[in-house]
Write a sequence for this structure.
């Protein structure tokens, strides 16, 4: 108890003596674990390579600069593909995520014991696998190319969008739903009037946020052959064409900055 | 017109919110339901239009028994019961007009309501009602731009456009300042008189209730403790409903206000 009575004097401390000893012991254990882990990592590291790192890095830097600017003429199409993969993937994902979110939200699901777990399973399973892995699987199934990339991005995004959306649905103001129900409106009318207006800002925010993430994710999909600028990146890496690699990285950086700016603008406009 | 017959509501937690409540409301009567917080006032109102399912007992609206209706016929009967809420319960992101028209949802098909293609007669009636409550110029404003009193007026329009026979009013003034509270209560009671509507008004403010209504029902622990005219609310009765307190001031102030009104 922080409040104590000592000889008629009321004393207050944040912790009692026992509690502060317990705290110190916890800290001690924490530090011991940290030192032990540090030693283990140190043992399994080949320190020669680490000490060598600055030299290799400067070597790479001199090879990669200046970027091969004229290579830009071949990057227009791939970066356009990348943008399309991200945008189409996001749209497809939203088309599936919206119904899944309504099935998963506690206050709108038709059945808590049958349908809700199923919807949650869709959310968890699509979310837990990285889009790069989805792309590898899909290339095996539908062959390499942009389409595999679109589907990979779409599947990966379903869980993310549905999860955020169903949380937004669960946080709505129920009295507005009550008010619409009390007018004698049908289930679907209650949804359109009582729920949709309340989640619309969240929906728009989620959509542009995911689109922004997908632009970044789709840049690497080409590494496994799913189209976009990653394809150029991997072929340049394979032939050790470092000036091309550096130009590709610059282009990706610019694309990501622009997408981030757009999504910040859109979200700012909604909220 | 409205008849509650041994209405009981027991929540899953075991709390008995209503204990065999019998109330009979004739057409055109405005009834105030008073009682301490947790007495079951809100539950009672919601059991009538089955936003809360009653555990047992019957509710008759005219000759139709509401507690046994299927969901389709319940929706049809809900159109005859307008509801007004404490926190207005407007759809904040829709316009005033859309909010008022949402009172017609029970009469309009899904696609028409989805596309906001309401019949012209509904739109005329919406404008008429907004004009009646003094908000005709606000029709295209978003609901969240309005002040509390204005929002409650929109809530009243939404209930009235249903063309109801009965109004269920849940703490209409609890979020409003004293002056606006009176205006809103006066408006509700006037509209009930104009349209011969019965109304059940949950209200905390005993003095305000006494000013406007013809009949008061006092609820305590889910049971009716008092049922009679507002003049019957003596200190003893109020003690019975709310518990021990000095009630003279409350009743005194009502007399003063009555004088002011007649002046």
């Amino acid at each position: 108890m922080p409040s104590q009575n000592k000889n008629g004097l009321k004393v207050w401390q944040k912790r009692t003596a026992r509690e502060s000893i317990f705290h110190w012991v916890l800290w001690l254990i924490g530090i011991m674990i940290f030192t032990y882990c540090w030693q283990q990592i140190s043992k399994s590291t080949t320190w020669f390579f680490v000490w060598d790192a600055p030299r290799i890095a400067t070597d790479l830097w001199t090879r990669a600069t200046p970027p091969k600017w004229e290579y830009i003429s071949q990057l227009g199409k791939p970066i356009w593909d990348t943008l399309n993969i991200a945008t189409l993937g996001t749209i497809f994902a939203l088309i599936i995520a919206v119904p899944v979110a309504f099935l998963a939200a506690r206050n709108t699901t038709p059945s808590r014991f049958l349908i809700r777990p199923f919807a949650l399973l869709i959310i968890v399973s699509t979310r837990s696998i990285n889009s790069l892995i989805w792309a590898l699987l899909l290339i095996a199934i539908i062959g390499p190319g942009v389409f595999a990339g679109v589907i990979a991005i779409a599947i990966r995004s379903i869980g993310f969008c549905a999860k955020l959306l169903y949380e937004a649905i669960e946080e709505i103001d129920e009295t507005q739903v009550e008010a619409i129900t009390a007018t004698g409106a049908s289930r679907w009318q209650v949804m359109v009037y009582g729920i949709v207006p309340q989640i619309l800002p969240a929906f728009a925010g989620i959509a542009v946020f995911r689109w922004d993430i997908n632009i970044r994710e789709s840049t690497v999909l080409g590494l496994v052959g799913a189209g976009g600028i990653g394809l150029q990146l991997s072929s340049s890496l394979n032939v050790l064409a470092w000036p091309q690699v550096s130009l590709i990285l610059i282009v990706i950086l610019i694309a990501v900055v622009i997408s981030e700016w757009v999504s910040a603008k859109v979200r700012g406009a909604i909220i | 017109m409205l008849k509650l017959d041994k209405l009981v509501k027991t929540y899953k937690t075991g709390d008995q919110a209503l204990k065999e409540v019998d109330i009979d409301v004739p057409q055109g009567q405005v009834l105030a339901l008073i009682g301490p917080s947790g007495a079951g006032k809100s539950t009672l109102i919601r059991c009538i239009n089955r936003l809360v399912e009653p555990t047992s007992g019957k509710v008759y609206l005219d000759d139709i028994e509401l507690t046994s209706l299927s969901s389709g016929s319940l929706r049809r009967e809900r159109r005859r019961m307008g509801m007004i809420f404490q926190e207005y319960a407007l759809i904040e992101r829709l316009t005033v007009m859309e909010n008022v028209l949402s009172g017609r949802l029970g009469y309009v098909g899904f696609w028409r309501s989805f596309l906001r293609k309401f019949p012209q007669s509904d739109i005329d009636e919406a404008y008429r009602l907004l004009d009646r409550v003094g908000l005709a110029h606000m029709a295209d404003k978003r609901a969240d731009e309005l002040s509390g009193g204005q929002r409650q007026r929109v809530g009243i329009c939404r209930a009235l456009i249903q063309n109801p026979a009965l109004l269920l009013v849940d703490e209409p003034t609890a979020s409003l300042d004293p002056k606006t509270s009176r205006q809103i209560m006066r408006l509700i009671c006037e509209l009930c008189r104009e349209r011969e509507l019965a109304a059940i008004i949950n209200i905390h403010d005993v003095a305000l209730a006494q000013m406007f209504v013809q009949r008061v029902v006092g609820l305590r622990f889910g049971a009716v403790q008092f049922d009679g005219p507002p003049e019957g609310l003596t200190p003893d009765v109020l003690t019975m409903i709310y518990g021990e307190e000095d009630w003279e001031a409350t009743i005194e102030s009502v007399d003063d206000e009555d004088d002011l009104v007649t002046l």
Remarks:
- Chain B has a mean pLDDT of 88.
- The two ends of chain B are 35 Å apart (CA to CA).
